Amino acid sequence: YLNIMKTTRKKIIQDKIFAKENIRSLWREIKSEYDNSQSEENHSSLEIEINCIGGISYESETDDLLQDGDVIDNKRCSTVNIEYHDYELNRRISLNLSHGNTYGNDIIVRGDKNWVSGVFDSLNDIIEAAKPQEHWFIKYKTVILHTGAILFGFFIFKLLDLIPIEPIEESSTNILKIRD
Questions:
Q1: What separation in angstroms does the CA of 89 have from each of 26, 47, 84, 145, 174?
Q2: Which of 1, 7, 151, 4 has the alpha carbon at shortest distance from 93?
Q3: Predicted TM-score (pTM) above 0.85
Q4: What are the b/e assignments for 40-62, b being 16+ CB within 10 Å?
Q5: Measured on CA atoms in the order 52, 82, 30, 128, is the torsion positive or negative?
Q6: Residue 81's closest CA among 110, 32, 48, 123?
Q7: Radius of gyration of the chain from Cα atoms?
Q8: How far is residue 126 from each of residues 61, 83, 101, 166, measured CA to CA in Å?
Q9: Which residues pair with 11 in a beta bridge?
Q10: DSSP-derived 3-state class of residue 101
Q11: Beta strands of 87-167 (E only): which ranges?
Q12: Contacts of 134 (CB under 8 A, 6+ apart)
């Protein structure tokens, strides 16, 4: 166990469409780090987990789930998680991808500063190469939400105008009645 300062870099992944080849590229990059860390003195782990619609999940320490004709082709996948952990050098890579823009789409790289920088940049390049998710709602989300909020406020204001409000007559008399 090395006692060195650790660095963590995290990236939230949004508005990307990951094809099978993108996931394979990420696997290969993470697997190369795993292969480089292998030695008799070093203990490390690598795992991919694919969760599918219907509650079925698959786990493997190899890329067999990513092969043509296997799970990634035959099932509707909801999440893909790839985890690498080097227990001796205290390095970790965690990739979490979920269908849709839900919480948990991220990449986290933790270890010594130089290693983190290089690995994170390599993985980020692969992520950025994924096709962007272009949809008119995503593109104009802020404008649509602000316009909706303004229209909702206007609608509530108009509803409040429909409530009849009677003016208080002889307010001094009413106040005296309350005091008595």
A1: 21, 18, 12, 47, 80
A2: 7
A3: no
A4: eeeebebebebbbeeeeebeeee
A5: positive
A6: 48
A7: 28
A8: 21, 17, 18, 67
A9: 107
A10: coil
A11: 91-98, 106-111, 131-132
A12: 15
Residue 73 neighbours by CB under 8 Å, 6+ apart: 20
pLDDT value at position 168?
Answer: 58
The secondary structure of residue 42, as a DSSP letter, is B
Task: Tell me the C-alpha to C-alpha distance, in Å, between residue 153 and each of 47, 140, 156, 164.
Answer: 50, 20, 5, 19
180 residues of the chain, pLDDT tens digit each:
456 688 999 998 888 888 889 999 999 999 999 998 887 777 899 999 998 888 888 999 988 888 888 887 788 888 899 999 998 888 999 999 988 655 678 899 999 999 999 999 999 999 999 888 777 766 677 888 999 999 999 899 888 888 777 665 666 666 666 665
Round to whole Å and give the CA distance between 90 and 92.
Answer: 7
